[in-house]
Design a protein that fits this description.
The structure is a single chain. Among the domains are: 138 residues, no CATH class; 83 residues; 56 residues, no CATH class; 280 residues, no CATH class; 59 residues. It is built from 49 helices and 29 strands. Strand 5 and strand 6 form a beta hairpin. This is ubiquitinyl hydrolase 1.
């Protein structure tokens, strides 16, 4: 390498100029003079400063205050603390700037930041009456920054305030600007060229290889081979970047096409003139005013041709640009151009106006520094060809060369070809078949493209021997022609770029090239990263070392705005606060966005385990007191106001929502806060904050005024009670009376009192008070109307809460609801007239048997009543609908029970149904006795509206008969899903009721029975006579044994009613509806113990409508309960047999019954289990299918067996009647050790030690069992986590509330499908409310309100449409 001086010097950053630069800097003060005595000797240093600091001499002398001696220093002296007088401030420090600057105005507007009243305050409030900060910003209190305006920052949302200041918009800090100027992963180099000492070839060679007008490149040619003095080479692009920075009062020449955006104008020039540079103490005469630069970008703002020196591309570069522009024309929409523009030279009009290169401009808003940068100026050869050539040589090295040497040799060959042409005048062609050429370069498509870009001509030649060969001829470089000059400059630029590329490659692979003798390269590379970093204030010496800061390497993530912080890979916490405040100062409109990013960085620091500095914490708290909010806060505010499809308003928030609607939403939110006695105050603050945030985010002055007026003049409920001088517990009637008295006493306060009463009306949501204020009359109690689209409730007939829940459940099933609708208007007479032959009855079997004429009549009558009820639920305007007595009796009493009652009352068998008996008995089910014979409709206790909503009689004076208890008993013996659900078959074992009384159609409807009341001695005792006069529904209801039979009875009758016994149509059209919806098919496999029984394995298939889960133990979920049912041990032929059940076909509706009635073998009494069974919104039935993976089934069975054993052992240790055992052992030990009267020889030290250790052993075992249970459960669920094909969604949950298995209250939840699956309705008899999802899925441990029936619908089956209501009166056929 030649180390002689290069032809191009490394450019240095421009030095800042100052009007006072001519002044001589004062000499440094010697230590002896400063201390007035001889100090200890200092270590000698070659340079002033240290390895981490440097001394910057001030450009101007410091200001002189008063007369001083000739000595260049001032002696230290004590200063007496005296009150500060109102002496005038020295002229060198303007009095209108509290931020350390002479002026803080922007665009010629004076800021009011530092007026005489703006003194620093130390009060606790964020702002005092004069509007100043709580504590000043300084070197220790906060970042150094000037130019801020308090009023503008407070009203950042107000466009009129922003228009006054005309801020320049978002900016960037120097470290990030350094990355914007060029890719931080790329290196820029300053390239300087040495004059090669090649000698031209002799002109006597053959074929005229040497050009007659040959001239080698001059020094000027070498200098101009670089695009611009401020152009720097990038190897990664094989191109150049024009980069220039300068401190100047004059802006660079702007392009004619550049039009500044009104939203981001240029910074105030007057303010920029006051500061030469933000970095460097010598340029800040009155102390540092800003911690760093703050640059603003103006894209394509500077015309490169107007620079000094100008940048103009070479002719060959411009021709390449023109080709690219022609290609862009093909993308224009020529059809959109009018025909008259295509006349003449229309294409020239279509092409954009040609302009020189446009450069991006970055201007610091705080000083006179600016920076301009170009896009990458491409080199002669596209970088893709250079990289491809390098890859080829790397993958196919020459013989005897390694990969690196092969690459270098190839690039040196390209340089040799150009050097021979430019400096030696060699113009002869190069034969590509020569061995040397093939070994060093080769002839590939990439090599050919490179030579074609250089202008080499590819041609076939004939050798003297007559053989055909291929050669490439270099382009003409005659300087006397335009083409020759262009070709020469092009080759020279290629030579410089390839030399720079090669030199950087040799540096990177120096170790691999130690054995290779590299050819001489005539260029020199100097990295310029530090140089331009120093120029723009991004060098670490200007930030970290100058301030004593520590670099941090957190990477909080992509959510941090790159427009605020230095870089995502490396940024400094001390610059963070300055960056945030600078962005808010220059772009106040985006203040919430900047605070969001600032706050996210603080949170990220904490997540990385570090603690933000005290300054950053103080700044966050300070900004919070100024009502700064994040994007999440804004979304939360929108939710607080009730916006969202799943929220109260059912409307998503949009920016164009009417302001009046927003005010209404806010006022509704205030009302809800007033009505909350517990958290009302907090909710009120949240509502006001939410409204303020939304108002600011919309930039609405009107909404802000509404809020200010409310906060100034509003009356909250507590204040309203004070104004009216009444306690909060006063009811509405008394409140109106007191209001009238107050008006009489203080008529001048009428408006104030009316406002207070209106506030209380809204807080109480009292229609009565509102009406009173509007009309002046007390309207009495007002029942608010229910929405038309809201589901209706069902009134109780007396302890029929379970039936109400069941009927509401049936109504949510769309296909069932539609199927029974046509039977709504069927008359009893029409049903009586229907005749069925024996052949008709044999057409269908229900529940595995034939049905009777009586059952057909009852079923159709029941479904007709059910259809009428459904119609009322759809169209009724009332809050609740009352079912008919016939419907309740037919639902709760089976046909078999009815026949038994008739047989006992008549003494005849009424089951022999013929056409004659149907006609004779038509009065019995069709007509009921007068229900007024008893206080209760059902002959039981009247329902007390004020009592708890539990259907049980707490009075010991009114014991209920067994028949009455059976009317609402808890599920004590549920029907097994492994058998048929026919009420005829199931009721055979449940008809042994102890109450044997006559039916009311004889006791209440027939005259002879009524006449028998006169003969008192001949009649039964009084209780029996009262029973005879009670409505027949009492006895009929008394025959119902459990709630499962009620559901079976209803489904049985629905199925019969929908069957077609006439034979005129397809009997399967509707007859299978119940089976299609509710019934599936399962396979049972019974395997006896072969050691105790010779019975073989039996297997069969059967239908099921319920899956039972035995709820005897706590700590299980729905999968655990089902697993016990699908694999269980049963008694069989005096031994045990394993019953394995699997599902063959799944129904659309999966009903899972939680069997809570358990039997206590010690007390021999049934009891209700309150254990919590966990379930979710979705259940997957894949693991229970007959087609499930047998290997998974076997593994699951092993895990489940171990899990059950662990749970049983844990239950024994923690829930046994003698548990917990620890206190028992401790008591035993105390008793034995303190026993003095009896000698216990067995009580030795070993026994005492065992008793002491036993407690720890038990505790250790309990903890181990719990850990095993959790692990096994996770292992089990992980086994089936991918089996999610057969998914069922929770649709209904039936609840029993009560502690007794015989009495209690029933209600149920239904999911609002299909439109609003996240909403639930709670059906509690006549009351229907919206219930939260969390309430449905809540843990019921410790509560006596527990789920006992879960209904799941097959995902995607669309069988449940919860609500069917008329949405307007126009849809009601009655109107």
């Amino acid at each position: 390498m030649d180390h002689s001086d290069p032809a191009r010097r490394l450019p240095s950053p421009p030095q800042p100029t100052s009007s006072a630069s001519a002044s001589k800097a004062p000499s440094t003060v010697s230590p002896s003079s400063f201390y007035a005595s001889k100090p200890p000797p200092l270590p000698s240093r070659k340079n002033v400063g240290s390895s981490h600091t440097k001394v910057v001499q001030p450009g101007t002398p410091p200001p002189v205050y008063g007369s001083m001696d000739a000595s260049p220093f001032r002696e230290p002296q004590l200063v007496e603390e005296t009150p500060i007088t109102n002496d005038p401030i020295p002229g060198l420090l303007p009095a209108d700037d509290a931020w350390g600057q002479a002026d803080s105005s922007w665009a010629g507007t004076q800021a009011t930041w530092g007026t005489s009243t703006d003194t620093w305050s130390t009060d606790a409030t964020p702002w005092d009456s004069t509007g100043t900060w709580t504590q000043p910003y300084g070197a220790s209190q906060g970042p150094i920054i000037d130019g801020r305006d308090k009023s503008e920052e407070d009203h950042w949302w107000d466009a009129s305030v922003r228009d006054i200041h005309k801020r320049p918009g978002p900016g960037v800090l120097p470290p990030y600007l350094a990355d914007l100027l060029h890719n931080p992963d790329h290196s820029l180099f300053s390239v300087s060229v040495n004059q090669p000492d090649f000698k031209p070839l002799a002109s006597s060679q053959e074929s005229g290889e040497v050009c007659q007008s040959f001239q080698p490149p001059s020094v000027d040619d070498l200098n101009y081979s670089i695009p611009h003095p401020n152009a720097y080479y990038c190897r990664k692009h094989n191109g150049w970047v024009l980069l220039q920075w300068k401190s100047s009062m004059i802006m660079p020449p702007l392009a004619k096409s550049f039009v500044p955006d009104p939203e981001t104008p240029f910074p105030d020039l007057a303010r920029r003139k006051r500061m030469t540079s933000c970095v460097g103490g010598g340029e800040q005469h009155f102390g540092q005013a800003n911690l760093s630069h703050h640059f603003h970008r103006y894209e394509k703002a500077v015309d490169a041709l107007k620079l000094d020196p100008a940048f103009r591309r070479s002719e060959w570069e411009m021709s390449v640009q023109k080709k690219q522009k022609r290609r862009k024309v093909t993308s224009l929409d020529l059809d959109a151009i009018s025909l008259h523009r295509m006349e003449g030279n229309a294409m020239e009009d279509v092409l954009p106006e040609e302009e020189d290169d446009l450069l991006d401009l970055y201007v610091c808003c705080q000083c006179s520094l600016y920076c301009i940068v170009s896009e990458v100026i491409p080199g002669v050869i596209p970088v893709k060809y250079i990289e491809e050539f390098t890859r080829e040589r790397w993958d196919n090295p020459a013989i005897g060369r390694n990969k690196e040497e092969s690459v270098v040799s190839g690039l040196e060959t390209f340089l040799l070809v150009v050097e021979n042409k430019l400096w030696k005048g060699q113009h002869r062609g190069i034969t590509i078949s020569r061995p040397v050429f093939q070994r060093k370069i080769g002839w590939t498509p990439v090599v050919r493209c490179i030579f074609e870009h250089l202008g080499f001509i590819y041609a076939e030649t004939v050798t003297p021997a007559g053989e055909r060969d291929t050669s490439i001829t270099p382009p003409i470089t005659d300087p006397s022609t335009l083409e020759g000059r262009q070709n020469g400059r092009k080759l020279l630029r290629f030579w410089v770029e390839t030399s720079a590329w090669l030199l950087d490659y040799q540096r990177r692979y120096a170790n691999a090239l130690k054995q290779y003798t590299c050819a001489r390269v005539w260029v020199k590379l100097d990295p310029v990263r530090e140089m331009y970093q120093m120029g723009i204030g991004a060098h670490p010496d200007q930030t970290i070392r100058a301030l004593g800061l520590t670099p941090m390497t957190y990477s909080p993530g992509a959510s941090i705005s790159s427009m605020i912080y230095s870089t995502l890979k490396r940024w400094y916490l001390e610059l963070l606060a300055f960056a945030y405040l600078a962005q808010c100062r220059c772009d106040p409109k985006q203040t919430p966005h900047y605070f969001t990013q600032f706050y996210s960085v603080i949170q990220a620091i904490q997540q990385y385990g570090d603690l933000p500095s005290q300054e950053l914490q103080n700044l966050v708290l300070q900004e919070r007191t100024r009502n700064r909010y994040t994007d999440d806060d804004r979304l939360g505010a929108i939710r607080v106001l009730g916006f969202g499809k799943d929220n109260l308003l059912r409307v998503d928030y949009e920016d164009d929502i009417d302001e009046d609607f927003l005010v209404g939403a806010w006022k509704d939110c205030l009302k809800r806060a007033w009505r909350d006695p517990k958290d009302g105050a907090q909710r009120l603050r949240d509502a006001n904050d939410a409204f303020r945030i939304v108002a600011e985010s919309r930039g609405s002055v009107n909404l802000q005024k509404v809020l200010e007026d409310f906060l100034r003049d509003s009356i909250d409920p507590s204040r309203a009670y004070t104004i009216l001088e009444i306690p909060p517990e006063t009811d509405d009637a008394m409140l109106m009376t007191v209001f009238m008295l107050r008006l009489d006493e203080q008529p001048q306060q009428a408006e104030r009192m009316k406002e207070a009463l209106l506030t209380l009306a809204e807080a109480r949501d009292s229609c009565r008070l509102r009406t009173f204020l509007e009309t002046g009359q007390d309207p009495g109690e007002i029942v608010p109307a229910m929405r038309l689209d809201f589901p209706r409730g069902l009134n109780q007939l007396g302890n029929t809460c379970y039936l109400n829940s069941l009927l509401q459940y049936f109504y949510t099933i769309k296909e069932l609801r539609d199927a029974v609708a046509p039977l709504a208007k069927m008359s009893v007479k029409a049903l009586e007239d229907e005749k069925y032959s024996d052949d008709d009855l044999k057409r269908h079997r229900v529940g595995g048997r034939l049905v009777t004429r009586r059952e057909i009549f009852r079923s159709k009558k029941f479904v007709s009543q059910l259809a009428n009820l459904f119609w009322n639920l759809e169209h009724a305007e009332e809050v609740a609908v009352t079912p008919t007595m016939d419907l309740a009796k037919l639902a709760l009493v089976t046909s078999r029970d009815e026949e038994d009652d008739e047989a006992e009352s008549r003494g005849t068998d009424s089951s022999n149904d013929t056409d004659a008996t149907l006609v004779d008995d038509s009065q019995s089910p069709g007509r009921l006795a007068n229900a007024d014979a008893s206080d209760s409709v059902l002959g039981k206790r009247a329902r007390d509206d004020n009592a708890m909503d539990v259907d049980e009689d707490a009075s010991p004076k009114s014991p209920m008969s067994d028949s009455e208890k059976n009317g609402y008993v808890m599920v004590s013996h549920p029907s097994s899903p492994r058998r048929s659900k026919s009420p005829r078959l199931d009721s055979a074992g449940s008809s042994n009721s102890s109450s044997k009384s006559t039916s009311s159609k004889q006791a209440g409807a027939k005259e002879p029975v009524q006449q028998g009341d006169d003969d008192v001695p001949a009649q039964p005792p009084l209780p029996e006579r009262k029973t005879q006069t009670t409505s027949d529904s009492v006895m009929l209801f008394g025959k119902q044994h459990d709630v499962s039979e009620c559901m079976d009875n209803c489904m049985f009758q629905i199925e019969i009613a929908l069957l077609n016994f006439s034979g005129l149509s397809d009997p399967q059209e509707k007859g299978s509806l119940v089976k299609r919806l509710f019934y599936g098919k399962l396979r049972q496999r019974l395997t006896p113990d072969q050691r105790k029984s010779r019975a073989s394995v039996t297997e069969k298939q059967d239908l099921f409508s319920h899956l039972p889960v035995n709820v005897s133990d706590s700590g299980i979920d729905i999968y655990d309960g089902l697993s016990r049912y699908f694999d269980d041990l049963v008694d069989y032929e005096g031994g045990k047999a394993r019953m394995e059940v699997s599902l063959v076909e799944l129904p659309p509706l999966m009903q899972i019954q939680l069997q809570r009635v358990q039997f206590n073998r010690e007390t021999l009494q049934p009891y209700k289990s309150q254990a919590y069974v966990k379930f979710g919104k979705t259940i997957y039935m894949d693991r229970f299918l007959d087609s499930a993976d047998p290997h998974k089934k076997a593994k699951s069975k092993r895990i489940q067996t171990t899990l059950i054993a662990r749970r049983e052992r844990l239950r024994l240790l923690t829930e046994h009647k003698h548990a917990p055992f620890g206190p028992c052992l401790d008591s035993t030990l105390n008793f034995l050790t303190k026993q003095e009267n009896v000698v216990l020889p067995q009580l030795d030290d070993e026994l005492v030690a065992q008793l002491n250790n036993e407690q720890q052993v038990i505790q250790s075992e309990v903890e181990g069992l719990r850990e095993d249970i959790v692990r096994l459960k996770e292992e089990l669920e992980d086994l089936w986590k991918d089996d999610t094909t057969f998914a069922y969604e929770l649709t209904s949950v039936f609840i029993h509330r009560g502690s007794s298995p015989s009495f209690g209250h029933y209600f149920f939840y239904s999911r609002n499908l299909p439109d609003k699956p996240d909403e639930w309705f709670k059906y509690n008899d006549s009351t229907v409310t919206e219930g939260p999802k969390d309430e449905v899925l809540a843990d019921t441990t410790g509560s006596n309100a527990n789920p006992y029936l879960l209904v799941f619908a097959r995902k995607g089956s669309d069988v449940v449409h919860t609500v069917k209501r008329i949405t307007s009166l126009a849809e009601d056929p009655k109107t």
